[in-house]
Write a structure and sequence with these properties.
246 residues, alpha+beta, four-stranded antiparallel β-sheet, 10 strands, 28% helix, elongated, binds zinc ion
């Protein structure tokens, strides 16, 4: 890294934005790892950069001399095999995070507390049973808790509950093992469908989902008009006929 800069205190919190520049300048990246929605870039000497894209974040490669991309919040200029290039972090709505830690700092709790990543680690119903047991929280909120499963957000949780035919408001403790198995299967299937879509088109079109974003439209399974409720601050679409409450 020949130079690095972050111009946004909100993204860098709790570290000051200048920590990003000083953690990277003159150093090499030695690895990169993804867990759920977080990336961890390993910096030689033991430091890390933790990156979460939020809703609208992205890393883009910019050729030397090209104009600054819109909504640029941070940049990393690199020299690799004698060639310079630059990667920029762009984020229109700034819900992302970009946190640099030093060699002697612990990993951030947002990273260390992440549960298993269903894509990398697989997903067993057993694991969900433990999280659901004795919980009065709505099952969809438990699914979206990043300490339970890393990477499952509103879209995947909404789709998985529809596939499992269970009301997303059902309390965790009300679920039978057969329900938990159906939910685990739903999560795995929702991920597989979204990945296939991305592989084919490079993005996920909104109209590719069964129920997410479709409140007021007929249920693709039974034709009932889809309902929506807010759970944990997130809009949740479901079918009141084929997703009975437990
Ligand atoms: Zn239905």
């Amino acid at each position: 890294v020949t130079a690095a800069a972050c111009a946004d205190a909100r993204l860098a919190r709790p570290a000051p934005p200048r920590a990003f520049a000083s953690a990277l300048a003159g150093k090499r990246f030695t690895g990169v790892m993804r867990k759920g929605k977080w990336l961890r870039l390993d910096v030689e000497g033991g430091g890390h950069v933790f990156s979460h894209l939020g809703m609208t974040g992205d890393w883009v490669r910019v050729p030397a001399g090209a104009p600054e991309p819109r909504f640029e919040r941070a940049r990393i200029d690199v020299l690799r095999r004698g060639r310079t290039s630059s990667v920029r972090y762009v984020d229109a709505r700034r819900f992302g995070r970009l946190i640099a830690t030093g060699a002697t700092d612990d990993d951030i709790p947002e990273w260390t507390e992440l549960g298993p990543d269903p894509l990398a680690d697989g997903l067993e119903a057993r694991h969900l049973s433990k999280a659901f047991a004795k919980s009065r929280r709505a099952v969809k909120e438990i699914l979206m808790d990043q300490r339970v499963l890393a990477g499952v957000g509103n879209i995947l949780a909404t789709e998985a509950m529809w596939m499992a035919r269970i009301d997303p408001r059902s309390p965790g403790a009300s679920l039978a093992l057969v329900d938990t198995r159906a939910i685990a299967k739903g999560v795995r299937r929702a991920i597989a469908l979204e990945l296939a879509e991305r592989k084919k088109y490079g993005a996920t079109a909104l109209d590719s989902f069964f129920v997410y974003g479709r409140a007021g439209e007929p249920c693709p399974r039974c034709g009932t008009i889809l309902s929506s409720v807010v759970l944990g601050g997130r809009t949740t679409v479901f079918c009141s006929t084929c997703q009975p409450r437990r």
